[in-house]
Amino acid sequence: MPAGTKYGASSWTATAVQPDSSALISPEPRTLRRGGALWRCDILGIVAVTVTANDNAMDSKANPALRIRESRASDVGAILRIYAEEVRTGTASFELVAPSREEMSVRRESLLAAGFPYLVAELGDLFAGYAYAGPYRTRPAYRFTVENSVYVAKRARKRGVGLQLLNTLISECEAGGFRQMVAIIGDSRHTASIQLHSRAGFRLVGTIQNVGMKFGGWLDSVLMQRALGEGANTIPTEPLHDG
Ligand SMILES: CC(C)(COP(=O)(O)OP(=O)(O)OC[C@H]1O[C@@H](n2cnc3c(N)ncnc32)[C@H](O)[C@@H]1OP(=O)(O)O)[C@@H](O)C(=O)NCCC(=O)NCCS
Questions:
Q1: Which of 80, 81, 93, 196 is the best mutation target for the ligand 1 pocket, counting ligand atoms within 8 Å of the beta carbon and taking the most?
Q2: Residue 46 has pLDDT above 80, yes or no
Q3: Scanning 71, 116, 176, 188, which has the fewest C-beta atoms within 10 Å of its C-beta?
Q4: What CATH number is attached to the domain comprising 173?
Q5: What's the CA-to-centroid distance between 104 and ligand 1, angstroms?
Q6: Contact, 183 vs 148, CB < 8 A?
Q7: For the chain, give me the number of helices (H) and strands (E)?
Q8: Residue 113: domain span
Q9: Which residue from 155, 158, 214 has its CB within 8 A of the most atoms of ligand 1, so it is best to mutate?
Q10: At what angle do helices 161-175 and 191-199 cross, to 10 degrees?
Q11: CA of 215 to the centre of ligand 1 (A)
Q12: What is the pTM of this model?
Protein backbone atom coordinates (compact mmCIF):
# COMPACT_ATOMS: atom_id res chain seq x y z
CA MET A 1 0.00 0.00 0.00
CA PRO A 2 1.54 3.32 -0.97
CA ALA A 3 2.54 5.97 1.52
CA GLY A 4 -0.22 8.33 2.40
CA THR A 5 -3.02 5.91 1.72
CA LYS A 6 -5.91 6.40 4.06
CA TYR A 7 -6.89 3.47 6.18
CA GLY A 8 -10.38 2.65 7.30
CA ALA A 9 -11.87 4.82 4.64
CA SER A 10 -15.43 3.79 5.27
CA SER A 11 -15.64 5.02 8.81
CA TRP A 12 -12.98 7.69 9.19
CA THR A 13 -14.08 11.16 8.30
CA ALA A 14 -10.81 13.02 8.32
CA THR A 15 -8.52 13.51 5.39
CA ALA A 16 -5.26 11.64 5.06
CA VAL A 17 -2.22 13.67 4.21
CA GLN A 18 1.04 12.50 2.75
CA PRO A 19 3.43 11.61 5.55
CA ASP A 20 7.00 12.65 5.11
CA SER A 21 9.46 10.02 4.06
CA SER A 22 10.82 9.63 7.59
CA ALA A 23 7.40 8.38 8.57
CA LEU A 24 7.80 5.28 6.47
CA ILE A 25 8.96 2.83 9.02
CA SER A 26 9.13 -0.51 7.38
CA PRO A 27 9.55 -0.61 3.61
CA GLU A 28 10.76 -4.19 3.51
CA PRO A 29 8.70 -7.33 3.24
CA ARG A 30 8.34 -9.26 6.46
CA THR A 31 8.44 -12.85 7.36
CA LEU A 32 5.29 -13.90 9.12
CA ARG A 33 4.82 -16.97 11.24
CA ARG A 34 1.52 -18.74 11.40
CA GLY A 35 1.16 -21.92 13.37
CA GLY A 36 4.69 -22.99 12.68
CA ALA A 37 4.61 -22.01 9.00
CA LEU A 38 6.77 -19.22 7.65
CA TRP A 39 5.64 -17.11 4.75
CA ARG A 40 6.70 -13.85 3.26
CA CYS A 41 4.48 -10.94 2.71
CA ASP A 42 4.97 -7.37 1.65
CA ILE A 43 1.95 -5.85 3.19
CA LEU A 44 3.19 -4.57 6.45
CA GLY A 45 5.43 -2.27 4.54
CA ILE A 46 3.84 0.97 5.64
CA VAL A 47 2.58 2.21 8.75
CA ALA A 48 2.37 5.90 8.93
CA VAL A 49 -0.92 7.60 8.46
CA THR A 50 -1.39 11.22 9.32
CA VAL A 51 -4.81 12.68 9.56
CA THR A 52 -6.31 15.76 11.05
CA ALA A 53 -8.48 14.64 13.92
CA ASN A 54 -12.21 15.17 13.68
CA ASP A 55 -12.33 18.33 11.60
CA ASN A 56 -9.52 19.17 9.29
CA ALA A 57 -10.87 22.67 8.85
CA MET A 58 -9.89 23.46 12.43
CA ASP A 59 -6.51 24.99 13.18
CA SER A 60 -3.75 22.59 14.10
CA LYS A 61 -3.33 23.84 17.69
CA ALA A 62 -6.96 23.31 18.56
CA ASN A 63 -7.03 20.08 16.66
CA PRO A 64 -3.57 18.58 16.26
CA ALA A 65 -2.73 16.04 13.61
CA LEU A 66 -3.29 12.42 14.49
CA ARG A 67 -0.54 10.16 13.29
CA ILE A 68 -0.60 6.39 13.35
CA ARG A 69 2.72 4.61 12.97
CA GLU A 70 4.46 1.39 13.86
CA SER A 71 5.60 1.19 17.44
CA ARG A 72 9.27 1.39 18.37
CA ALA A 73 11.13 -0.11 21.30
CA SER A 74 11.42 3.42 22.71
CA ASP A 75 7.61 3.68 22.88
CA VAL A 76 7.33 0.97 25.53
CA GLY A 77 7.50 3.38 28.46
CA ALA A 78 4.61 5.47 27.10
CA ILE A 79 2.65 2.35 26.20
CA LEU A 80 3.10 1.00 29.70
CA ARG A 81 1.96 4.27 31.31
CA ILE A 82 -1.35 4.05 29.44
CA TYR A 83 -1.75 0.35 30.11
CA ALA A 84 -0.77 0.50 33.78
CA GLU A 85 -3.35 3.19 34.46
CA GLU A 86 -6.02 1.11 32.79
CA VAL A 87 -4.99 -1.98 34.77
CA ARG A 88 -5.20 0.05 38.00
CA THR A 89 -8.45 1.84 37.28
CA GLY A 90 -10.39 0.02 34.58
CA THR A 91 -11.82 -3.31 33.53
CA ALA A 92 -10.64 -3.47 29.93
CA SER A 93 -7.75 -5.60 31.13
CA PHE A 94 -8.31 -8.52 33.47
CA GLU A 95 -4.80 -8.12 34.80
CA LEU A 96 -4.76 -6.97 38.40
CA VAL A 97 -1.17 -5.74 38.57
CA ALA A 98 0.52 -3.89 35.74
CA PRO A 99 3.44 -5.69 34.14
CA SER A 100 6.98 -4.39 34.41
CA ARG A 101 8.52 -2.45 31.56
CA GLU A 102 10.67 -5.46 30.75
CA GLU A 103 7.62 -7.70 30.54
CA MET A 104 5.83 -5.16 28.33
CA SER A 105 8.85 -5.10 26.02
CA VAL A 106 8.94 -8.86 25.82
CA ARG A 107 5.22 -8.99 24.99
CA ARG A 108 5.63 -6.43 22.23
CA GLU A 109 8.70 -8.09 20.76
CA SER A 110 7.03 -11.50 20.80
CA LEU A 111 4.07 -10.17 18.86
CA LEU A 112 6.27 -8.43 16.31
CA ALA A 113 8.43 -11.52 15.91
CA ALA A 114 5.32 -13.53 15.17
CA GLY A 115 4.28 -11.03 12.49
CA PHE A 116 1.50 -9.17 14.24
CA PRO A 117 1.11 -5.40 13.90
CA TYR A 118 1.75 -3.17 16.91
CA LEU A 119 0.86 0.47 16.27
CA VAL A 120 0.93 3.72 18.18
CA ALA A 121 -0.95 6.98 17.81
CA GLU A 122 0.41 10.48 18.29
CA LEU A 123 -1.90 13.44 18.57
CA GLY A 124 0.34 16.40 17.96
CA ASP A 125 3.02 16.08 20.65
CA LEU A 126 0.95 13.74 22.77
CA PHE A 127 1.54 10.00 22.83
CA ALA A 128 -2.12 9.19 22.47
CA GLY A 129 -2.51 5.43 22.37
CA TYR A 130 -1.57 2.10 20.94
CA ALA A 131 -3.12 -0.96 19.36
CA TYR A 132 -1.91 -4.38 18.51
CA ALA A 133 -3.13 -7.72 17.26
CA GLY A 134 -2.16 -11.06 18.68
CA PRO A 135 -3.26 -14.64 18.38
CA TYR A 136 -6.89 -15.21 19.35
CA ARG A 137 -5.86 -18.62 20.62
CA THR A 138 -2.54 -20.33 20.17
CA ARG A 139 -3.50 -23.68 18.65
CA PRO A 140 -2.64 -23.68 14.96
CA ALA A 141 -6.14 -24.03 13.53
CA TYR A 142 -6.79 -20.53 14.87
CA ARG A 143 -3.94 -19.06 12.85
CA PHE A 144 -6.13 -16.90 10.62
CA THR A 145 -7.86 -15.30 13.60
CA VAL A 146 -6.49 -12.44 15.66
CA GLU A 147 -7.57 -10.72 18.84
CA ASN A 148 -7.18 -6.98 19.00
CA SER A 149 -6.26 -4.56 21.77
CA VAL A 150 -6.67 -0.77 21.66
CA TYR A 151 -5.77 1.61 24.46
CA VAL A 152 -6.05 5.39 24.36
CA ALA A 153 -4.62 7.77 26.98
CA LYS A 154 -7.39 9.23 29.09
CA ARG A 155 -6.69 12.79 28.02
CA ALA A 156 -6.78 11.82 24.33
CA ARG A 157 -10.09 10.02 24.38
CA LYS A 158 -13.19 10.86 22.35
CA ARG A 159 -11.14 12.51 19.65
CA GLY A 160 -11.15 9.72 17.12
CA VAL A 161 -7.85 8.16 18.18
CA GLY A 162 -9.26 4.76 19.11
CA LEU A 163 -11.22 4.40 15.91
CA GLN A 164 -8.32 5.38 13.71
CA LEU A 165 -5.99 3.01 15.55
CA LEU A 166 -8.48 0.18 15.22
CA ASN A 167 -9.21 0.85 11.55
CA THR A 168 -5.50 0.93 10.80
CA LEU A 169 -4.98 -2.29 12.72
CA ILE A 170 -7.78 -3.90 10.74
CA SER A 171 -6.17 -2.84 7.48
CA GLU A 172 -2.83 -4.21 8.59
CA CYS A 173 -4.33 -7.53 9.60
CA GLU A 174 -6.28 -7.80 6.37
CA ALA A 175 -3.12 -7.15 4.41
CA GLY A 176 -1.38 -9.79 6.53
CA GLY A 177 -3.85 -12.44 5.38
CA PHE A 178 -5.83 -12.80 8.59
CA ARG A 179 -9.53 -13.54 8.14
CA GLN A 180 -11.24 -12.82 11.45
CA MET A 181 -10.69 -10.35 14.26
CA VAL A 182 -12.13 -10.97 17.71
CA ALA A 183 -12.52 -8.39 20.46
CA ILE A 184 -12.85 -9.63 24.01
CA ILE A 185 -14.22 -6.69 25.93
CA GLY A 186 -14.31 -6.36 29.68
CA ASP A 187 -16.98 -5.75 30.74
CA SER A 188 -20.55 -5.56 29.40
CA ARG A 189 -20.85 -2.08 30.96
CA HIS A 190 -17.92 -0.84 28.89
CA THR A 191 -19.98 1.17 26.43
CA ALA A 192 -17.01 3.05 24.96
CA SER A 193 -15.28 -0.13 23.83
CA ILE A 194 -18.47 -1.80 22.61
CA GLN A 195 -19.42 1.31 20.61
CA LEU A 196 -15.91 1.69 19.27
CA HIS A 197 -15.93 -1.85 17.93
CA SER A 198 -19.42 -1.42 16.47
CA ARG A 199 -18.17 1.66 14.63
CA ALA A 200 -15.31 -0.42 13.23
CA GLY A 201 -17.66 -3.05 11.83
CA PHE A 202 -17.70 -5.60 14.64
CA ARG A 203 -20.89 -7.40 15.64
CA LEU A 204 -21.78 -8.77 19.01
CA VAL A 205 -21.42 -12.55 19.10
CA GLY A 206 -22.00 -13.21 22.76
CA THR A 207 -21.39 -12.39 26.36
CA ILE A 208 -19.66 -14.72 28.77
CA GLN A 209 -21.08 -13.76 32.10
CA ASN A 210 -19.29 -13.30 35.42
CA VAL A 211 -16.00 -14.79 34.30
CA GLY A 212 -13.82 -12.09 35.85
CA MET A 213 -13.44 -10.73 39.38
CA LYS A 214 -11.90 -7.29 39.78
CA PHE A 215 -12.53 -4.39 42.16
CA GLY A 216 -14.71 -6.70 44.23
CA GLY A 217 -17.22 -7.45 41.50
CA TRP A 218 -17.92 -9.96 38.75
CA LEU A 219 -17.05 -9.01 35.18
CA ASP A 220 -18.43 -10.24 31.88
CA SER A 221 -16.46 -10.75 28.70
CA VAL A 222 -18.25 -9.34 25.67
CA LEU A 223 -17.22 -11.06 22.46
CA MET A 224 -17.38 -9.10 19.24
CA GLN A 225 -16.15 -10.23 15.86
CA ARG A 226 -15.40 -8.83 12.45
CA ALA A 227 -14.43 -10.55 9.23
CA LEU A 228 -11.18 -9.39 7.66
CA GLY A 229 -10.73 -9.21 3.90
CA GLU A 230 -12.49 -12.11 2.25
CA GLY A 231 -13.36 -13.55 5.64
CA ALA A 232 -14.81 -17.03 5.34
CA ASN A 233 -15.79 -16.57 1.68
CA THR A 234 -12.60 -18.15 0.39
CA ILE A 235 -9.97 -20.58 1.59
CA PRO A 236 -6.55 -18.96 2.06
CA THR A 237 -3.74 -20.07 -0.23
CA GLU A 238 -1.23 -19.90 2.61
CA PRO A 239 -0.04 -23.33 3.85
CA LEU A 240 -2.98 -24.86 5.64
CA HIS A 241 -1.35 -27.91 7.15
CA ASP A 242 1.26 -26.60 9.53
CA GLY A 243 2.85 -27.86 12.64
C1 LIG B 1 -12.36 2.31 24.16
C2 LIG B 1 -11.35 3.38 23.79
C3 LIG B 1 -10.16 2.71 23.09
C4 LIG B 1 -12.00 4.38 22.84
O5 LIG B 1 -11.00 5.27 22.39
P6 LIG B 1 -11.37 6.75 21.90
O7 LIG B 1 -10.18 7.32 21.23
O8 LIG B 1 -11.93 7.52 23.02
O9 LIG B 1 -12.52 6.46 20.83
P10 LIG B 1 -12.93 7.39 19.60
O11 LIG B 1 -12.85 8.82 19.99
O12 LIG B 1 -12.15 6.96 18.40
O13 LIG B 1 -14.44 6.98 19.42
C14 LIG B 1 -14.85 6.08 18.42
C15 LIG B 1 -16.27 5.67 18.72
O16 LIG B 1 -16.31 4.92 19.94
C17 LIG B 1 -17.48 5.27 20.65
N18 LIG B 1 -17.12 5.84 21.94
C19 LIG B 1 -15.91 6.27 22.35
N20 LIG B 1 -15.95 6.67 23.63
C21 LIG B 1 -17.21 6.50 24.03
C22 LIG B 1 -17.88 6.70 25.27
N23 LIG B 1 -17.24 7.19 26.35
N24 LIG B 1 -19.21 6.39 25.34
C25 LIG B 1 -19.85 5.90 24.27
N26 LIG B 1 -19.27 5.67 23.07
C27 LIG B 1 -17.96 5.97 22.96
C28 LIG B 1 -18.27 6.24 19.81
O29 LIG B 1 -19.16 5.49 19.00
C30 LIG B 1 -17.19 6.84 18.95
O31 LIG B 1 -17.64 7.29 17.73
P32 LIG B 1 -18.39 8.72 17.60
O33 LIG B 1 -17.57 9.68 18.39
O34 LIG B 1 -18.37 8.99 16.16
O35 LIG B 1 -19.73 8.49 18.17
C36 LIG B 1 -10.87 4.16 25.06
O37 LIG B 1 -12.01 4.58 25.79
C38 LIG B 1 -9.97 3.34 25.95
O39 LIG B 1 -8.76 3.30 25.77
N40 LIG B 1 -10.56 2.64 26.94
C41 LIG B 1 -9.79 1.80 27.87
C42 LIG B 1 -9.18 0.62 27.17
C43 LIG B 1 -10.20 -0.18 26.40
O44 LIG B 1 -11.31 -0.37 26.83
N45 LIG B 1 -9.79 -0.68 25.23
C46 LIG B 1 -10.64 -1.49 24.39
C47 LIG B 1 -10.51 -2.92 24.76
S48 LIG B 1 -9.42 -3.79 23.69
A1: 196
A2: no
A3: 188
A4: 3.40.630.30
A5: 23
A6: yes
A7: 4, 11
A8: 16-233
A9: 158
A10: 50
A11: 22
A12: 0.82
